[in-house]
Specification:
The protein is of the alpha/beta class. The chain has one domain: Rossmann fold (3-Layer(aba) Sandwich), CATH 3.40.50. Helices cover 41% and strands 14% of the residues. The chain contains twelve helices and eight strands. It has helices spanning 17-30, 45-49, 61-65, 71-74, 95-98, 108-122, 144-152, 170-183, 203-216, 229-236, 241-244, 249-263; strands at residues 4-8, 35-39, 76-77, 83-86, 133-137, 155-161, 189-196, 268-269. It has an eight-stranded mixed β-sheet, with helices on both faces. Helix 8 links the parallel strand 6 (155-161) and strand 7. Helix 1 crosses helix 12 and helix 6 (108-122) packs parallel to helix 7. Bound molecules: adenosine-5'-diphosphate and magnesium ion. The site of adenosine-5'-diphosphate has 18 residues, from helix 1 and helix 10.
Length: 273
């Protein structure tokens, strides 16, 4: 069976994309699923979170986008059984500019993934994989890297921080998804809007959560990720929350999200036009 491909997208930084990518991945891996994480952010936070030092790598996803390496060349295991990562590196920041004139520049990642899947399903034992899930961490922008991500997946999860300006920028985000769906990737859909960093003790956070649910309706996951310091501590230790604090709220929330992702089909489609 082909792997389910999900991108974590929001052009705002600090909303929980990377934290969700790592810990949802770990929650799925704990259920015996095989997960490939792909870091498409030049800041390489996902890579660092998984205890890989970007400056120690001789090749990264950057070399894949530039046609100098295949994904199979750069994928590496993580400390979580069943979870692998394609790391990023700081030079990825240049890719946005370098690829502007490349033919088919929006589809480079999609093509590289097709080759990776073909190699791993050929099953001669030398290629890495196969995987059940691809989780793709986007940079905080709507540029060519994010367009490559949206072209390569079927599903998008949008983490939204439950704070005052949460909904600002959502119209542009949905426009970009609709544009990619219309021109490059028919069938692309929002799997869910994920409220993150929810603090149910504050009125503001509760009100924003209610507003998100009113505005997006069934597109919002039933699971909300509560604010939990163990999540940020885990990342600074290069560990998933299941390794660092398995009894924490953060671990419970990401386990619940994994359950819901497995249950949920693509409910809310990006609006056309
Ligand atoms: P993004 O990838 O969208 O920029 P991150 O996942 O890196 O966002 O999160 C931004 C910061 O907030 C990080 O320091 C992370 O450890 C922290 N963080 C993320 N989710 C939570 C949470 N639920 N509770 C507390 N801190 C969080
Ligand atoms: Mg990030």
């Amino acid at each position: 069976m082909a792997m389910r491909r999900i991108a974590f997208m929001n052009q705002k930084g600090g909303v929980g994309k990377t934290t969700t990518c790592v810990n949802l991945g770990a929650a799925l891996a704990r259920r015996g699923l095989r997960v490939l994480l792909l870091d498409l952010d030049p800041q390489a936070n996902l890579t660092v979170h998984l205890d890989v030092r970007p400056d120690s790598l001789d090749r990264s996803v950057y070399d894949v986008l530039c046609g100098r390496a295949s994904l199979a060349d750069v994928v590496r295991p993580t400390s979580t059984l069943g979870m692998d990562v394609v790391p990023s590196s700081l030079d990825l920041a240049g890719a946005e500019m370098e690829l502007v004139s490349a033919v088919g520049r929006e589809q480079i990642l999609k093509d590289a993934l097709a080759r990776l899947e073909a190699a791993s399903s050929a099953g001669d034992g030398t290629a890495p994989g196969p995987w059940d899930f691809l989780l793709l961490d986007c940079p905080p922008s709507l540029g060519l890297l994010t367009v490559n991500a949206l072209t390569a997946v079927r599903e998008v999860i949008v983490p939204l921080q439950a704070e005052f300006f949460a909904l600002q920028g959502m119209a542009r985000l949905r426009d970009v998804i609709a544009l990619v769906e219309g021109r490059l990737n028919p069938g692309l859909a929002i799997l869910g809007i994920l409220p993150s960093m929810v603090d149910s003790r504050t009125t503001l956070s509760r009100e924003v959560l209610a507003e998100i649910r009113t505005y997006f309706g069934a597109a919002v996951f039933g699971t909300a990720i509560r604010r939990n310091v163990k999540l940020s501590e885990a990342s600074s230790h290069g560990r998933t929350v299941f390794e660092y604090a398995p009894g924490s709220n953060g671990a419970a929330d990401y386990a619940a999200l994994a359950e819901e992702v497995l249950r949920r089909g693509a409910l809310a489609r990006a609006p056309a036009g």
